[in-house]
Design a protein that fits this description.
about 65% helix; globular; about 575 residues; mainly alpha
Length: about 575
Amino acid sequence: MRQQAILTGIALMSLCCLLYLWGLGGVPFYTKGEPREATVVWEIYTTHEWVLPLRNGHIIPSKPPLFHWLGTLVSYANGEVNEFTIRFPSAVLATMGVLLTYSTGVALWGVEAGAVAAVVLATSFEWSRAATTARVDMTLTVCMVAAFLFFLFIYRRGEVRRRDAFFFYVLLGLATLAKGPVGAILPGLTVVAFLAWRRDLVFLRQLHVVTGGLLVLLIAGSWYGLALWQGGSEFFTKQIMKENVLRFFTNDAGHDHPFYYFLPNLFLGMAPWSFFFPPLIMFLYRQRHAWAEKEYLYLIIWIATVFLFYSVAKSKRSVYILPLYPAVALLIGAWWQELRQGSAAMSATFFRLIQASGYLCLLFVGVTIAAIACQALGYDALGLIRPLLHPRDQSNLPLFTDIVPLQPYAFLLWSVVTAIAVGLLVLGIQRRYWGWVFTGLATFTISAVLLVNVVFQPTVATTRTYRPFMERVVKTVGQAPLFFFLTFDNGALYYAKRRVPHYDTSLVKPEVGYFLLMRKEEWDEIAARNEPNLVMIDVSEGTGPKDRHRLALVQAPKGAYVSIAEPVVPANEDESDADAL
């Protein structure tokens, strides 16, 4: 049993390395969020300012620094800052989260339950996306998940040793350093709700709440205090008020969505495993009197607390509920093990519901294969769903329709692997071989994650990133002054490997020539005015995070000033920061 658990754990770690590390540094930054966090890491690496590194020399960062500290340490070990070193902490922490989930499943129910839960979590779309992204979300999630699970085990033991309580509060402090007070609030709310349900609030005395609260304040509050001392009212307004209080209670911070927003997002984020939510819910309902005995109660309260907390908040993003994914995966693992071993009572109605879920998964896989096959044959099958998409996603469809012909062998291999998965699904559903069904779904999801990471992401990045353009800019400009003109982009800033201020005539020295970064359409307007002595040197291939703008590099000789038809209103450098909760 022990040897089997160890070997399975090694296999899961290898799977995570395959899913999260393969090609991790090969995709350039092309979204808004990743280079924003990357510039913070670059500032720490180059200026050695660990408390409050200012993006571009003056912008207060939006998040606490734990993720950036980790990225900087990896960059020091590597000898330079690059895409791999900045994303690496997310990949490692995601792997730790999968292994924590697996270990919990093994301890509660057995190796099979733990393995199923781990694979479900590792291959869920939202989890795998966060694992390969240079954002703070996975750092927050794994710190919180570690705290959630650690409390479960100290409660099951029935007593809390002082060092256990100390470690629990250290995890809460680290979670707070990852993304703010929510890192401690959500586990705290879950613990209180669980103990209240169990009518065991007296257990809080064993947790040394007052001492623990002081420890959390020491860990996270020490940084907040130093950052407040350095950043003053601007730091307080941005990181404490805007990124936490206002984002929870008001609509002014962005990402405003209805209360039910996370229902479809949880389903999509865990597809195709989420097709089995209906029979899982029925199973849990039938087992409602045994929730505490079978260790389901705490997981259900954990899920409900996170889900309701973020549903009440005004600002919502699909990644916010990532901390509940391990709990959902654990429940799926426990149910699947009982289902496969035949220990779960299964009426005819229950079996039909499971079978229907399986066939829906099969339909999902079949539609995916058919859509890709149509694209390979020159038919725009994805165009059928165009009216159902957001305008931004509609603009992305032409890009995706071009990928299949560009990577025929990759899609052919994926199709072969997926065909095997379909065969396992069909036979498993018909014969009630639930192990075959799981293997088929795991095969499909693993191949799908690899296809996205190795084929789709690099192709999208190639059309959007400013990296090749900025590498040429760095060589062309050298040490000459460089300014953003009526625009700003975090990706361009990161790849400039220097601070790039906004254009201001007071910064221009008459005896020195300089360069401007501007949108191509801005240059077209300037060129139409026959602006003297200005020359466009280069233009980007990439069209930016929203696929809207090419950047142009414009050279201005000594003593030249750019006339502006309207007053300069620089692009908002913080426009992409609306995602703090």
